[in-house]
Amino acid sequence: MNEPTPTTHCPGPMDRRNFLQFGLAGFGALSLQGLMKVRAENAAKPKSERTAVILVWLPGGCSHIDTYDPKPEAPIEYRGPFSTIPTKIPGTRFTELLPMQAKIADKFSIVRSMVNGAAGHPAGSMQMFSGDKAKRDKPKPSLPDWMSVANYLRAQESPRKNPLPRYMGIKPPTSYNGPAYLGDAYSPFAITGDPNAPKFTVPNVGLSDANESQRVGRRVALRERLDTLERAFDREGETGALDEFEQQALSLLTNPQARDAFDLSKESNRTRDRYGCNTWGQQLLLSRRLIESGVEIVTNQLNGPLCGRVNNWDDHAVNHHVFNAMRFRAKAYDQSVSALIEDIYQRGLAKRVLVVVTGEFGRTPKVNYQPSTGVGNASAPAGTKQPGRDHWPRAFSNIWAGGGIQGGQLIGSTDKLGQDSITHRHSPGDFLATIYQHLGIEYNKIAIKDFNGRPTPIVDHGKAIPELIA
Fold it and tell me: Would you tell me which CATH number, out of the four given (3.30.1020.10, 3.30.420.40, 1.10.3380.10, 3.40.720.10), belongs to the domain 16-468?
């Protein structure tokens, strides 16, 4: 079984052209001209008062028992093989997989009593992102996710002067969420490349539609002309021939503030190493830089090769040996998340910026054994029986840092086997209301018209979690 290859230092800085290619890669995921039409920011308030959120999404669902809610007294078929370690919260223990987070547990709060009403990835994710109460999976969301809603509501305030979009996603979760009836203008500006790579290139989208191909061609032509266009940007009439998309792209990519936000070479080697010289570490470091540059909502998805063979946290026995998978991804996860949390405190962001780490549900407390469907990282050869945990919406954990929240809180509990939340049960509606509360959005009063013109509440069930209100 292959293990992640350690590195001494993260890759060196990108040259200017590779940086611009990296930026252009994001255009393929969104109609940028639509996004830029939004142009909104509350200019009346100082930038320091604009609250922000960084979401760290664990697609597939993280095992609560193997991380934040261990059950060392439970039978072995429930508790698993991991020992537990003390944390900075007196009397609270994590598993041995999270030593860095354990050391700073006084800087974040853990909700151990989340519940979800759906056991499938699409429906479970939609409940967490939008509050959709449907229990059956469906191909696309009918309600806008909280990120798009926040983007939309803040867009109504006043013109945005910051060249960076308000809402950005670094490998954003997009499979089971989206703006729905708000429209694509409120989707994220998506960064799909690997921030840890020394070079970024425009993805090969391979479009067959003639109109789309022509637009991609214009993007490539724009990239090739950026060196000369930037030097001539202020000349009268120089950009008059560019269409609106290109003008907005040029504004984003040539503005010094935008370049600085994406330029990880401005961080010291020590800082980059602290986050981890891997995709996840540099994603979260870039998230912090974007927030400091005025982006207000940043989403991250911790998936891909660092997760194991199937590139996510969905640790069925047919996918992964659940315990090998948790070991495989634990260092990168623990290191990157703890570095982000420490950083928002050390850099004076802990009141303004809320960091939320969660997946759509937990994993079954009782371990089961099934034949593997394929060999790879954290998975034995096909046909080999290995342990796994399945979907479990009845109890799971998430963590909350910053946002002016008192750290070191343990909120709610599960039973002795980790099967059910038994105190301070909290729903996806509570989850959403808490985030909206931090963003200054009156979640219990606001409704937005849907496709049929019907006012639809942004939260129709749930209240902000009292312990997580600043």
Answer: 3.40.720.10
